[in-house]
Write a structure and sequence with these properties.
two-stranded antiparallel sheet, 15 strands, single chain, twelve-stranded antiparallel barrel, 346 residues, 48% strand, Porin, mainly beta
Length: 346
C-alpha cells in the first residue's frame, strides 16, 4: 500500500510539473470583427491580468480497486481529497513566475500517516521562472515555451530522501489545429536533477538506537537508493468541442537514474544480472472537462501511474491495475473569478 500512496502522490507531482506549460491566456482581441466600412472602429485589445493562470483546485480521488473488493487478496480501499494552489504573476505576455503547493488527506485508513485524517504536503513546493510561447517555428506553427523550476522539500518523501533541492528545466512544444473549438497537441520534456545529502532513503528511527561509531550508518537507512536525476516525457492531445466542453487524453514516462552503488554487492553470482540503476514509471490520463462559467470548471477523469514491473518482476498491466484512480476535480480560475465579481464577465 505504501507503493500505492507514493505513486498516487506522483500523479499530483505530474500535474504540477506540466502545469507551467498549460497556462490559459485571454484572447488578445475581444468583440466582433470590424465591418468593411471605413468608419468602423478597430477592435480593442483586452488587457491581460498579471495573475492569469492562478487557480485553486479541489480533487476527490478513489482507486479503481476500491470499487472492486475481490481484485486482490486483501481489500484496502483508498479515498483521498487534495487541494492544489497555483500562483502566477506575468510581467508581460511571455515572461512570468509561478509557484505550486499541494496538500491532501486520506479519509480511509491510511498506511503512511500517524493519525486518522492527517493532512500533509505532497509533493514539494515548486517555484519557477516561466516563458510562454516565446517563439513560433515558421510554416509548422509550433509554439515553444520553457520554464526553470526549483523544487523545495516540503514532503515526507523528500525528507526521507534527505533531499534539500531539485532543479528542473522544461521545454514545451504546442500546436493548435482549427478543428471545432481547437485541437491542441502538446509535448512536454523535463530534466530533473535531485540534490540529496545521502544516496539512500533514511529511516525515521534507527534499527539500533544506541549504536555509535562509523559502522552504524547501515541502521539509519533503508538501503533503497534515491533517484539522482529524472527525465520526463509527456504527450497530451485535447479537443475543445464547444466553449464549455473539452476532452483530453495523455500519456507519459518517468525515467529515473539512481545513485550509483559504492563498491560491489557482497557475494558472488554466476548469473547475468540486469541493470538495476534505472526505474521506469508509466502514466496515462483520460479526462472530460465541463466549464459552465469562465471562473470555474469540473474535470472528470481516470488516470494510471504505475511502475513497469511488479514486485515479482512480472510486467504491470499498463492501463488498469492497482494504481488506477478515478477522480472529480473542481477548478476555480482566479482571473475569471475576479472578472466575474467586477462585472467584466463575457
Amino acid at each position: 500500500m505504501r507503493r500505492l500512496v507514493f505513486l498516487l502522490g506522483l500523479v499530483v507531482a505530474l500535474s504540477n510539473g506540466t502545469a507551467w506549460a498549460e497556462e490559459s491566456e485571454q484572447p488578445g482581441v475581444k468583440g466582433t470583427e470590424a465591418s468593411a466600412t471605413t468608419t468602423a472602429a478597430p477592435a480593442k485589445e483586452e488587457e491581460l491580468a498579471p495573475w492569469r493562470g492562478s487557480a485553486v483546485n479541489y480533487r476527490n480521488t478513489i482507486t479503481s480497486y476500491t470499487l472492486k473488493k475481490d481484485a486482490e487478496q486483501y481489500y484496502n480501499p483508498t479515498y483521498q481529497m487534495s487541494w492544489e494552489i497555483k500562483a502566477r504573476w506575468w510581467f508581460n505576455k511571455i515572461f512570468g513566475v509561478g509557484a505550486d503547493l499541494n496538500f491532501f488527506t486520506e479519509l480511509t485508513n491510511a498506511d503512511d500517516t500517524s493519525k486518522r485524517g492527517e493532512v500533509w504536503f505532497f509533493p514539494d513546493l515548486r517555484v519557477a521562472a516561466l516563458a510562454k510561447d516565446f517563439v513560433t517555428i515558421p510554416w509548422v506553427g509550433i509554439a515553444i515555451g520553457a520554464d526553470l523550476s526549483f523544487i523545495l522539500p516540503t514532503s515526507k518523501i523528500a525528507w526521507a530522501r534527505s533531499q534539500y533541492l531539485a532543479i528542473r528545466p522544461g521545454l514545451t512544444l504546442t500546436r493548435v489545429f482549427p478543428v471545432l473549438g481547437g485541437l491542441t497537441v502538446q509535448y512536454i520534456g523535463q530534466f530533473t536533477k535531485y540534490l540529496n545529502k545521502y544516496t539512500t532513503a533514511s529511516r525515521e528511527t534507527p534499527l539500533i538506537p544506541l549504536c555509535g561509531g562509523p559502522d552504524c550508518d547501515r541502521f539509519f537507512n533503508t538501503g533503497v537508493r534515491n533517484p539522482s536525476m529524472r527525465v520526463t516525457q509527456f504527450l497530451q492531445v485535447s479537443q475543445e468541442f464547444v466553449s464549455w466542453l473539452n476532452a483530453s487524453v495523455a500519456g507519459g514516462m518517468f525515467i529515473d537514474r539512481l545513485y550509483s552503488l559504492n563498491g560491489e554487492l557482497p557475494g558472488v553470482s554466476y548469473e547475468a544480472m540486469s541493470n538495476n540503476d534505472w526505474r521506469y514509471i508509466m502514466y496515462y490520463n483520460l479526462e472530460v472537462e465541463v466549464k459552465p462559467m469562465r471562473s470555474w470548471a469540473i474535470g472528470l477523469g481516470t488516470e494510471t501511474l504505475n511502475p513497469q514491473q511488479k514486485l515479482d518482476s512480472t510486467y504491470e498491466s499498463p492501463f488498469f491495475n492497482r494504481y488506477t484512480t478515478v477522480y472529480a476535480e473542481l477548478r476555480i480560475d482566479i482571473d475569471g473569478l475576479v472578472k466575474q465579481i467586477m462585472g467584466k464577465e463575457e
